[in-house]
Automatic annotation (TrEMBL):
It is an enzyme of class 1 (oxidoreductase). Signal peptide: none annotated. Residues 7-199 form the Ketoreductase domain. It holds the Pfam family adh_short. Its EC number is 1.1.1.100. This is Short-chain dehydrogenase.
């Protein structure tokens, strides 16, 4: 396919933030793009066809894939972007709340991927890009459950890439750091807050807000996705933005004890 027709792309969580910027960037690059949102959105937005889908519901996901195939006949690229956050001490979340987080961030990726794979296998080609986070590579105090979901996506994606190569399908991860979106405004709060964590949790919320305000524009992540989608020989990991690249390098080469001290110092925790 030439640059004017790179194929059909499906982007979950495309109504705002990284998903919206990614859908638009892919459309400009030459893909025919379908985006999803949990609630009804404008049917078409800047050349992107918007469809409703709840990634936590098998029936909703199956209906989405049927709609895309009915309109476009194929799916060449899947970008799993839909996700939610949770900020608080790990002890402050019930098992039910943790399961709800994993249902979106991990099992949502699994549902949509499994629904798309039969089509990609029959085509003999396809690419899947999972939006991870730099928190999929490092620990993150008061983000333990969210970081756990991203660590899970990392392991799943790397393993899946090995499984699917013989079918002409590749899987890649895009790992942003902080991005200027409304993500922090939509953070889930712990469902059983404990007073012992109040002070540090409040400080972490302040740090999160400042980091997001100073973070990368969503367009930076979107361009990384376009690169991952169009590279002839895709890598398994693409860090997005200067900070993400620095953190990945430090995690790889700095001794564990030194990295631990630096992380605690940055988080305002006793070293």
């Amino acid at each position: 396919m030439n640059k004017a027709n790179l194929g059909v792309a499906l982007v979950t969580g495309a109504s705002t933030g990284i998903g919206r910027a990614t859908a638009r960037a892919l459309q400009r690059a030459g893909f025919r793009v379908f985006g999803t949102s949990r609630r009804a959105a404008a049917e078409r937005s800047d050349g992107v066809t918007m469809l409703t889908c709840d990634v936590t519901d098998d029936t909703s996901v199956a209906r989405l894939i049927d709609q895309v195939l009915a309109e476009a006949g194929r799916i060449d690229l899947l970008v799993n972007n839909a996700g939610i956050g949770l900020l608080g001490g790990a002890e402050e979340s019930s098992t039910a709340q943790a399961q709800a987080l994993f249902d979106v961030n991990v099992f949502g990726v699994l549902r949509v991927t499994n629904a798309v794979l039969p089509t990609m296998r029959s085509q003999g080609k396809g690419r899947i890009i999972n939006i991870s986070s730099i928190l999929g590579l490092i620990p993150s105090p008061y983000n333990a459950l969210y970081a756990s979901t991203k660590h899970a996506v990392e392991g799943y994606s790397e393993s899946l890439d090995h499984e699917l190569r013989s079918f002409g399908i590749r899987v890649a991860l895009v790992e942003p750091a902080f991005t200027r979106t409304a993500f922090e405004e939509n953070l889930t709060k712990p469902d059983r807050s404990l007073a012992v964590y109040d002070a540090v949790r409040a400080e972490m919320e302040v740090q999160m807000r400042k980091a997001v305000e100073a973070g990368d524009d969503p367009g930076v992540v979107a361009e990384t996705v376009v690169k991952a989608a169009t590279d002839k020989a895709p890598r398994r990991r693409y860090t997005s933005g200067k900070l993400a690249g620095q953190v990945r390098l430090l995690r790889r080469f700095v001794p564990e004890s030194a990295f631990d001290k630096s992380l605690r110092r940055k988080a305002g925790l006793p070293v």
